[in-house]
Amino acid sequence: MRANTIIMIILAGVFGVLAVVLANMWLANQRSAMAKPGDVARDTVVVAAVPLKFGDSLSADKLREIAWPAGAVPSGAFKTTKELLAGDGTKQALQAIGVNEPVLATKITGPGQRATLSAVLAEGMKAVSIRVNDVLGVAGFVFPGDRVDILLTRTVRGDQGADRSFVDVLLQSVKVLAVDQVADESKENPQVVKAVTVEVSTKDAQKLTLAAGAGQLSLALRQTAANKGETTERVTLADLTGDTPDDVAKRQAELDRQKAADAAAAEERKRADDKIDGLAKAVDRVGSKIDELNKAKPAPVVASAPQVKEVVKYVQPEPPTRVTVGVFRGVKLESYEVPRQD
Q1: Cys staple from 218: which of 14, 37, 105, 136, with CB 3.0 to 4.6 Å?
Q2: pLDDT digits over 204-232, tens only?
């Protein structure tokens, strides 16, 4: 073995032993410093003694004071319970606060104020509600405090007269303030809601209001820690099927023709129904007129003179009871009446 190699191995061992000794000395000093609490400045911080949820009123039995390093007191913390409860009126929690979690000024209302959305809004932000259903609202799995992307689905008329449908990502990483009328972030049970209230800037509030009438809004739930925006692009029907714009236009034109044919057939049926209705009304009018004529008072009838009918009847006369018989006596005719014998 070469001499340089042996020297390097010896030096590496010496430096390793020296590093271990120095590390043990530093850890010993740290343990000694932690064992002397009097050497570290201490302060007190008010924390929650029981779990608090949105809208809970604060009282002395729900709070307690604990020791806290003076240099690490959170901004907005209270040193004493008396300081936290000072003021006229009860204070309420604006969000869920766990046991032993510091109660900060941003998490509670002012004296006498109610726990409302206006108290939760950040500076310069607005609360806007959008209508959703069991599908567009992510099946009820959106809770207050979640972050969502808001999608806008629209259908517009193209240059060639065909309708084009597409989806845009309107807003990203929007904070949900409330679902329906519930703003409690400790809510855990999912439920289908009809409206979701989100926190947006003034310009985004204008966008949402305009988009509500321009198309259909839906939500896409984001990962809790994924607050950073991402690059998005418009999605059209061609992206779903791989068809070219010409294919989509042809299919849309066929749908338009079918729609026009259905509309023409419906109009023809309507005209036929109108004719039938007209004939039925005409029949009703004729029937009504006949009824009116039947109900009218008849004119008085003048009796005419009786007509005498002449009847000629042949009456056979009765045969005579006696007959005349002539007798010649020489040249002289003598007549005699004798009884008739039949």
Answers
A1: 136
A2: 999 999 988 888 888 888 876 666 777 88
Q: What is the CB neighbour count within 10 angstroms for residue 77?
A: 18
pTM of the predicted structure, to 2 decimals: 0.47
Q: Does residue 267 lie in a domain region?
A: yes
Q: How far is CA 196 from the centre of its chain?
A: 12
Q: In this structure, what token pair is assigned to residue 307?
A: 């007509």
- Rounded Cα gap, residues 204 and 198, in angstroms: 10
Domain tally for the chain? Answer: 3
pLDDT tens for 86-122 read 888 888 888 788 888 998 888 888 887 776 767 777 7
Distances (CA, A) of 152 to 58, 136, 145, 221: 42, 11, 22, 15
Domain span at residue 71 reads 42-115
Percent of the chain topping pLDDT 70: 75
Q: Which helix (H) or strand (E) holds 239?
A: helix 237-241
Pairing verdict, β 163-179 and 147-157: antiparallel
Same domain, 199 and 273: no
| pLDDT range class, residue 245, cuts 50, 70, 90 | low
Which among 106, 114, 97, 115 has a CA at the least distance from the CA of 49? 97
pLDDT confidence bin for 307, thresholds 50/70/90: low
* Count of C-beta atoms within a 10 Å radius of residue 44: 17
- Contact present, 93 and 115 (Cβ < 8 Å): yes
Dihedral (C-alpha) 106, 107, 111, 114: value to the nearest 10 degrees?
120
What is the percent of the chain with per-residue pLDDT over 90, rounded to a whole number? 3
| Cα distance between residue 59 and residue 324, in whole Å | 167
